[in-house]
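anyone else get weird line breaks when pasting these?? whatever heres mine. first is seq + tokens for prot A
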Amino acid sequence: MAALLKRWRWALLIAAVLALSLAFAFWPRAVLVDAGQVSKGRMVTGITDDGQTRAVDVYVVSAPVTGYLDRIELDVGDPVARGALITRMTGRPSTPLDPRSRQELLAAGAAARAGEAGAKAALDQSWRDLQRAEKLAKDGFLPRSELEAARTRVAADRAALAAARAEVRRIEAMLAAPAGGHGTAPVAVIAPAGGSVLTRITESEGVIAEGTPLITIGDPDRIEGVVDLLSREAVRVKPGDRVEITQWGGPVPLIGTVKRIEPFGRLKISALGIEEQRVNVIIGFAPESLPAAARLGHGYQFDATFVLWSRGDALRVPIGALFRGTDGEWHAFEIVGGRAIDRKLKIGQINEEWGEVLGGLSEGAQVVVNPSKTLTDRTRVKAR
């Protein structure tokens, strides 16, 4: 009997071990998840886009005449004083008139003088008409509208006479020009303002047309930023808004404010070929950022965030922990006792990193970040 009981004990023990082994083998294991924490800290929402610096005042120096340009010896970055000589130009030599052209000018001059005489006669007549109209209007025999019409005719005839006389002088000057020659005396190209040479557009000597850009001058110590925002985003920004400038090359962000928003937009084609309406927003650097901003030059790139809302002690949850539930509301999985508990949240502001928690989670709560679609409420989880 004792031997039988002993065999039963061993059989029960073996059965229990097998049952425990099977239970352990088929017991659901904890799902490995990435975890984050609900914390309090600074949170900012705004509009972020790239921009570039530029000198506050940029002057484009152009050729004052058509002619021969001497080589510009200034290099980019060279200091330039107001009124300093940039280069010299020699006016284009005059072209001699052939006999046929001279005869045509003589005929045009005669016609211009005749036009001048006709314009003077018309002005004399309209002036006499005005004097009569003023007398009749004073006696009450002429409507005021006709008096104003008479005054308008005098003004028009006076302008016509001035134009006719200018045409006569123009033709006379062409006839009086020397036949040939070596051009005008050298013309000095002067710097309109002090600063530094920002770009050298034309540097080699040669014949150029009047108005051809030569160099640009600006003060690199007076820098502002410009960001071309989408027009639908620019309307959310106003002068005086805080701007945080990053990716400029320094260790800490620069601070600025919106100086002005240009009142017109322009069409710009994006890298994807999409037509966008863009608006320039001008940024001024705050006094505390000026020493660091002095390291920037004209045309340097940066990222700018226009702050629309900020809070220093916001209760925030990592943005990757948020998902929309079947009810359309924000949810997150809180890790409690090794299980993922589905929490319905009330979320305020959202940026690229955080969501502002207005209800549903407390500070220090551990949440699942980037939960898989297969994760469900009360699933056993383990943080990596």
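and prot B, same format (seq, then tokens)
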Amino acid sequence: MKDYSLEVHGCRHYDATGAISQPIYFSATFRHPAFHQSTGYDYGRVANPTRDQLELTVASLEQGQRCWALSSGMAAINMVLHLFQPGDHLLLSEDLYGGTVRLADEIYSGYGITFDYVDTADTAAVASKIRPNTRGIFIETPSNPMMRVSDIVALAALAHDHQSLLIVDNTFLSPHFQKPLTLGADIVVHSGTKYLCGHNDVIAGFLILKDTDSNYGRRLELLVKSEGPNLSPMDSWLMLRSIKTLGLRVERQAANALIIANWLKGQPAVTDVFFVGLPEHPGYALQQQQATGNGSMISFKVLNAELAKSMLGRLKLICFAESLGGVESLLTYPIAQTHAEMPKELLERTGLDDRLLRLSVGIEDVDDLIADLAGTLNG
């Protein structure tokens, strides 16, 4: 089944009622027919029929063997970091969501795990940082917020040559545009709050595996079962509803983004535009090779910090807010919001400064979005 059909129909098995919409099972526990007999459902933390349908759908979209629907994207990343032991070393993209950096540096470094940050768009640079105790490479591609593109195939081969896992945060593109497991990645994570939800009304995360019979697969099964970070039945149903329109949303958002990126290039007050759909982007060729679309995230720099800050208060249609991926366009000021806690060294290495704005393009009329941006840029 192709993505558009899978997004609409999911992995539904219709019950006796023939209900088109997946039922919401709120039950915390389930009746056993008899001793040593089970319906397949015993306790809601371990399994829930509504959540199961969501997990099967997302696993199918990512072409993975197993998916867990979790309470947030950070819950998914936290589960992944649980796989590693004191003495292990991990490599992370140096351009990375600030919350991931905080979790690594302020929580897991205290457990004896060491982290190095590297430009994962440069495979040779990654190779040079690998140690005998390196056990994982964690990347975002495109990265947040500088839109660097990493070679998933090459990094998967590099990781596996050194008995390491490749973990890909696929939030920025969604499985509609990119399927890292098919390119060699071992684990994919998502902030489901973003494109998979698309309506800014659910906090959710997803963790998808390539191989459930692997040591890491069995370990994650135990961790999720034991720690209980699962998504609620109601939020699972909302996510199933949202995924039905995933392809329609992200395709329109991507079309809008390309028009806006080209428009931004011609504005005197804009000095740099970072969008992987522009042919001049250094990762453009690789992006076309490993993904079927370019997404709708644009970062751009303006002349000075004063202009960047003043723009945020002049928006009429676009919302000044954190998050991304929803039908509403959002403008974010990363250095004060999503990346406020990033170490100064990483900010300098990536070029993330106080002139940078990040635009999550929605599904509104593109002329209205451009008019709003023009008004903010020109005062």
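btw re prot B: The radius of gyration is 21 Å. The mean pLDDT is 97.
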